[in-house]
Specification:
Helices cover 25% and strands 31% of the residues. The protein is of the alpha/beta class and 250 residues long. It has a single domain, classed as Vaccinia Virus protein VP39 (Rossmann fold), CATH 3.40.50. Strands 6-5-4-7-8-12-9 form a seven-stranded mixed sheet, sandwiched between helices. Strands 1, 2, 3, 10 and 11 form a five-stranded antiparallel sheet that branches. Helix 5 (153-166) links the parallel strand 7 and strand 8.
Amino acid sequence: MQEFRGYPVLVRRVTVRGRAFELVGPANYEALVDDPRVIQRFEQDEFLPYWAEFWPACALLADLVAAWPVAERSLAPCVLEIGCGLGLASLVAASRGYRAIASDYDADALAFVSESARRSAVGGLETRWIDWRKTYPELRADRIIAAEVLYEPRNLEPVARFVHAHLTPGGQGFLVDGNRQTADVFPGLAESHGLVVETQPVSLPSREIVFGGPGAPGLSGGAPMKGPLNRQKGGAHAVSGRVFIVRRRT
């Protein structure tokens, strides 16, 4: 595949706890800043295409989800990923039997996730356009997951409100970040919006997430991207961060 939705593409072969996925995304995140579509959206909403980067926290979240027990399809909890980006955690959840919904503010991101699901033979994954500044009365999830959605101060309160509004009673949220300073105040802010927050450090031994492999495109086929996981071709990478585990206050 050379191009998808008008973008040159990069295919990453990613193995999460023994399960292989093909993650399709734009070849060069930095080049998107000059894309006319991105420029137009930035003028409208200060939008930047963060979805096109594979952030280290995405690997942490995917590994966390991969540690969940396999779900029975008929009884599977609903897992909603917000700001899914390239959607690795959603792919992992769906592959383990969960009723997974990958959501993002960018329709291109959702198209790439669907293509990754097709290439990875992952069935049952739903995609949905969602603006976390809004409320969707019909939408409830047993687990809400996200990686690196707390990167800007303006996102903290909308994310907290969204999680509180859409989490089922007894449900849990798992928000992973790479220890960004902007997110340090999130627990207190979330608690002021009716959530209880527990913060735990998370780390990922390099053997758990492996990029590339014999004869695989790995990280080749495009310019390296900013994230530390993209600076080398193939191989395993160790990363660390934290997870905010949230639930609604009873």
